[in-house]
Amino acid sequence: MNKQGTDMNRPNFIFIMADDLGYADLGCTGARSSMPVSPNLDRMAAEGMLLRHGYSNSPVCSPTRFALVTGRWQYRLRGAAEEPLTGRAREDKVVGLPPEHPTLPSLLRDAGYATGLVGKWHLGYPPHFGPLKSGYQYFFGPLSGGVDYFSHQGSDGVHDLWENETHIEEKGYLTDLITDRAVQFIDSQNQSNPFMLSVHYTAPHWPWETRADEAESRRIGKSIRHTDGGSLETYHRMIYEMDEGIGRILRCLEEKGLDENTLVIFTSDNGGERFSDNWPFVGQKMDLLEGGIRVPLIARWPAKIIPGITSDTPVITMDWTATMLEAAGVQADPDHAMDGLSLLPLLANPRWTPERDLCWRMAHREQRALLRDGWKYLQVDGHEYLFNLVKDERERANLAQLYPERLKELRSRWLAWAATLPGIPADAKVTLAFTEADLPRATH
User: Fold this and answer.
1) Residue 430 above 50 pLDDT?
2) Residue 252: active-site member
3) Is 402 exposed, middle or buried (0-12, 13-18, 19+ CB in 10 A)?
4) Which of 76, 103, 148, 180 is such that its CA lies 20 to 30 A from the CA of 322?
5) Is cis: bond before 98, omega within 30 of 0?
């Protein structure tokens, strides 16, 4: 076993990921709800660092999760070309996270960490793929994307709740079940052995159900995209109930004396959808506009992070993989170098700003984006745009004609980046949860 450093001083890690949470859906990021939605996350931000320029690796869920678990551009893996991965991949031997690929949990496991995932996996189906095949020693949750909070059925009508590699039936509201298992995992740990726990809530992803909505779950049955239901009040309550669970997780750490040296990270897999608030940004899930990729991001680590600070340094999901590995003293696999950067310098100095490009691509609407020094190159449906996010974070002033050389430079940088990666496979699928036949697309 490759134990680097001593167990007593190596930090624990808890990575909490919400699903389809909008940038302004939390109190600390500007929530406009009439009810408090995130008191525990707001306290976590006050006790740690609020990163106001946090980006997801993709504006849709499973590609971001590929990037997080590998620490690399998701485009390197065939499964991440699906936007998103759907139930059609249940028997597929290719569309998933290859068990032989080094991952954050496998590298930490091999270095002596206890590893667990409670919540959403969404990186391929058994028998070819699964959390326990990719480094997690414990798993509880759904394997697919969205599931009903009470019936635990996926959008294809298949019951989808697992413990390790066993399909299980368990009554309860899924957000609370995920919290219960997270607390149990932490409670089983001790001071002498470090752990890494992924807590991947399905909230506040559709269907729009709070703890009080079991009757609504029965009404909609298998139609969990739920285009005929939901409300702002329900949506905000779903976030509040997830936040309650996060409060339980933080209290469990404190009660066990583990909070001081535990790095807890909270973010979303992509921008919000339908009932979410992405203000002040334009766009939503599936868009490379800021509303699709700018996400809430909080880090708390009492031993290392000065409380109550903010940072405007742009960071991306896969940076946290490199961060946790470096904090643990664990080297990346030499054949699978990290594309993300360790953020340990940023956690010590919120003004630290490395010079680099953040890049994205989507088969959906042939989207491209590159962010560099506050300037953003964007292409959608063959149209090119240039925005200065420092002055215009809402992306309403297209500067492409005013600054053609800047546009050319950023386009060239995007093309050079794309040339280092596999192209989008011809058989990759784009799957939309709803179309204009179900709900009108928002105009911006």
Assistant:
1) yes
2) no
3) exposed
4) 180
5) no
Nearest Cα to Cα of residue 277 among 236, 316, 245 = 236
Q: How many residues does the structure list for the chain?
A: 444
pLDDT of 414? 98
Question: In 3-state terms, what secondary structure has residue 277?
Answer: coil
The amino acid present at 195, given as its one-letter code, is F
Q: How many CB atoms lie within 10 A of CB 252?
A: 19
Distance, first Cα to last Cα, the chain? 54
CA 406 to mean position of chain CA atoms: 31
**94, 129 Cβ separation under 8 angstroms:** no
Q: 149, 111, 115, 144: which is closest to 130 by C-alpha?
A: 144
Please state, in angstroms and rounded to a whole number, the distance separating the CA atoms of residues 19 and 17: 7
Q: In whole angstroms, how far apart are CA 402 and each of 387, 406, 407? A: 11, 9, 9
Q: Which of 28, 61, 252, 359 is catalytic?
A: 61
**Angle formed at CA 57 by CA 52 and CA 62, multiple of 5 degrees:** 125
Q: Which pair of tokens denotes residue 349?
A: 């100095």
Say if residues 359 and 370 touch (Cβ distance below 8 Å). yes
Q: What percent of the chain has pLDDT over 90?
A: 91
Strand-strand pairing, 49-51 and 315-316: unpaired
Copy the structure tokens of residue 88: 């059609």
Task: Reduce the DSSP state of residue 121 to 3 states and report it.
Answer: coil
Site of tokens 């360790």: 342
Rounded CA separation 120/437 (Å): 29
CA pair distance 8, 197, nearest whole angstrom: 17
Amino acid at 249: I
83: left (phi over 0), alpha (psi -120 to 50) or beta: beta
Q: In sequence order, which residues have a C-beta less than 8 Å from that of residue 269 and are 6 or more positions away?
A: 17, 18, 19, 20, 56, 58, 61, 64, 65, 295, 317
The residues with which 239 forms a beta bridge, in sequence order, are none
- H/E element holding 196? strand 195-200
- The whole-number pLDDT of residue 87 equals 77
54-55/114-119 β-pairing: unpaired
Which residue in 53, 101, 122, 236 is the catalytic one?
A: 122
Question: 359 an active-site residue?
Answer: no
* Burial tier of 93 (Cβ tally within 10 Å: 0-12, 13-18, 19+): exposed
Q: Tell me: the pLDDT tens digits for 278-287? A: 999 999 999 9
